[in-house]
Every structure is written in C-alpha cells, then in structure tokens.
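Illustration: Bestrophin homolog.
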Amino acid sequence: MTVSYTLKVADSRFGGFSKLLFRWKGSIYKLLYKEFIVFVVLYTMLSLLYRCLLTEEQKRLYTKVAQYCNRSTDLIPLSFVLGFYVTLIVNRWWAQYTSIPLPDQLMCVISSNVHGKDERGRILRRTLIRYANLSAVLILRSCSSPGTVVSLGKPCMPAADSPQRGSAAPSVALSLCPATGFMTQDELKKFESLYSDFNKYWIPCVWFTNLAAQARRDGRIRDDVALRLLMDELNLYRAKCSMLFHYDWISIPLVYTQVVTIAVYSFFAFCLIGRQFLEPLEPGQEGDLDMYVPLPTLLQFFFYAGWLKVAEQIINPFGEDDDDFETNKLIDRNLQVSLLSVDDMYQNLPPAVKDKYWNESIAQPPYTVATAAETLKPSFLGSTFDMRVCEDTEQSQLAEASPSMPRIQTPLLSRFFTAASPAISIKNFGRGSRGHPHLRRPRADGGFPSPYPNRSEDPELVARIEEEEKEEMDDEESQISKPTTPAGLPRVTQPPVVSETQELPLIQVKSPSSSSLGADQTESWEP
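Result:
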C-alpha cells in the first residue's frame, strides 16, 4: 500500500517534482476531489442565487454580509493552527513506524548463542524466534484494521472467540489457529486458558524467557553473559510492542483535532459567502473584476483542505489508505527472514579465505567507466585544513608569555564589588600596587601620582600605606638573613594585622568609566 517514488527523485533535474503531479495513487487529488467538488458546487449555487434571483435591495444586504464574512477570515489563525497540527501528526506517524518490532537483532543473537545442530537445538531456536514473531502479530492485529491482514487470504476466526482487546479487536482479521503456523494447538489452548482483562501480547515474551532459561540449564546457552544478551534483546523487542500498543491507545487529544477541523471548515464557510463577486453599492463606484471562476479561492481551498486531508490520512497508519503501513508484508517478511536465520543459516558459513586485497596496504576497489573519475577527486580533509599562513604578521608571529605582562581587567566589574572583602587589607592593597610597576609612573617629585588626579588624597592614609610597605620590605630582608629553624623550615614573621575595631578613613574611588555616568557618581571602598 505504500507509494514509493524514491527512484523518481534520485537526481535533481528540470521538472523533477512536476512529473509526480500526474500520479493518481496516493495523490492529493484522490484524497480531496470529493470535498473539492462539494465546495465548487456550493460556490456556484450562491453565485447564481446572487446574480439571478436576488433583488437590488437584497443584493445590497448580501453585499454587506459578504464584506463582513471576508473580513472575518482574517481573524482565523488557520496557518498557525493547521501547520502545528500537521507537524505533530507527521512526527507521530514516523515514530509509530520506528516502533514496529523487527526481529533482526534478536534472530542474530539466537543464532549465535543457542547451540546445537541436533533436532533439539533446531526446535529451541525456531521456537524462540516464533514466540517473538507471535508477540508482534498479536500487537499488529490489535491496532490494524481487518482488511490489512485479510488480503493475504489468511484464515479468520470469529470476533467472539478472540480474547484480544484493541482498536481492531471487534473484527479480528488474522487467525491464531494452528493452520497459520504462528501457534501450535497446545499453545493456543494455553493462551486461551490464561484470562486477562488486558491485551495479552506479552504472553509469548514470557514463554520466550522461560524457554531461554531452560536452554541455559541444559547447556544450550553456554554462559550467563549470552543469556543476559538474549534477554536484553528480547526486552528491546517487547518494548517496541508495548510502545506500538500505547500509540494505538493514546491518541492525539480529540479537542485538538476538533479545533483544527472547525477552523478549516469555518474558514471556507466564510469564503463561500465573502469571496463572491459583488456589485458596487453606489451607482458610480467602480467594482471588482467579475471572475466567474475564483481561482485564488480554489487554490486556497486546495492547499488548506489538502493539508487537513494529509493529517487525516496518516494519523492512523495501520488502516487501508494508500500510504498506510503494509502490515501483511511486515509479518511475512519477519517470519521468513527470522526462521531462515536461526535454522538454515546456523553454522552454515562459507569458507574463510584470504581476500583480494590481502597483500595490498591500501585497498582500492575497481570502478566502472562511468564512475572512474570519482577516484581522481581528493578526499575531504577539512574546510581549513589546507589554509595558508595568514599574511598578517601579528597573526603569524609567536609571543612568549611573561609574568610581568599586564593583565587587563574589566573596569565595569568594579561597580558590583562595593562590599569590602575580608581578604583585603591595607597591606594587601599596597602589595598589589607594588606588584604592577607599569601602573605606577613616578612624578618629578619622586612620588607616585594618584590614578585620579581630580581627587584629593588623604595624606594620613598615604603615609600609613607607605609605612606598611616599608615594614613589609624590612620583614622580607630579615627573613632572608635569619637562619632556618631546626626542622629545616624558614622562620616566618607574622605581618601586622589591623584591628577589626580600628576605624580607617573611607577612600573615594572614581570608576574609569564614570565619565559616561556623570562626574559626581563615585564609588566607596572601605578596607
């Protein structure tokens, strides 16, 4: 049922997509032609009614109503509501496809870890993979419409005999009788004897785990690591079955679907009246061009209504639409491939020999004449891999890092640090200023100028800072001259500590960027 056109658009060429417009199966014409015909018929009836049957007074009244309806179409956010809804539907549609359980990984694990070429080994491998396929069949028959499985001529069973419950449970299409090969007679009896109010797709998975544990006890599975790998793959397979069941159970909220549907239908209901040809109200007033076929309105209906029909088609991809999933093909493919993998291909390997490129350091496969030119193209190594050295000398010249190199700090950060830090003292302040000699330029009188020349300095505070700097330098010289302690460590002299209760004058600091804020705006720093 899936319409595939991948080969038609493999190469971009002139009119590539245009050729797809003439296909009928799976096309928008097939989905929309009935609604389109109804819209055109209603529009034609209203046009004939206005042109032929209404009086002049009635035409004036109809003109006012039509103008009101035409203005009302701008109040409906159709593009936003419909676009978001279709995006949600498409994402959900693809997520449902990726949730379909495929036995490919599980069959490889079974074929490599369940050993035995005898009849018992074959039975174990085939039964394990058959249980996995049975679980997938149970979940697919619970969420697919009946016609998707009946088409292959598989025998049916009455709905009353089916213990399953799901969206398609009232008319179950695929039989679970032993003739189909998915269950034996004993398994069917065991399955029907287990009563549950919920879907029982998980029962074959439990049978799988018990049979795998028995195979481990019998030595068919040789270690616990292989058993754990088998259980992990089964859990992934069962999780996909569960996710598919929940996608069928939990739909997109009905209120959202109703809102989108009402928005589209009400929009075009206003268009039926508001997009009609109208005669001018005043005798001398110039009227619009009389287009018997409202082409822009018809195209607008085609786009918006077609958008809604796309969402309607793929909201449940397990139906019988042209682009719905081919459930029959999936079931047949999974059963055939999985049985072939665990039975006929078990330990059935071709001989391992030296390959063609055994003695070649670089393998170079042959090309056809049409693709031989591809080998001459260089490999991509990176967009800037072969970039030449920049001509700018500052970009290419290396510089050595130096401890005396000044570090520029952002002056704006000082605005936020108004509170005094416990680690800041007068001595640290002096040490920090002495550690950056490039920030202190000597004056003619031998002193150092203030970084803010317009600000008067406190002579008492300056004298205290110079005194502490001198004491610190004397302490460093005395530590160098003093001998070490008996433990071999230098004797450390405690620096004088400023008392917490001692009041220090407030230093008025002007921010370097304060010129942009105003001359009177300053910051306070309290040591």
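Reading the tokens back as a structure: Residues 103-152+176-249 form one domain.
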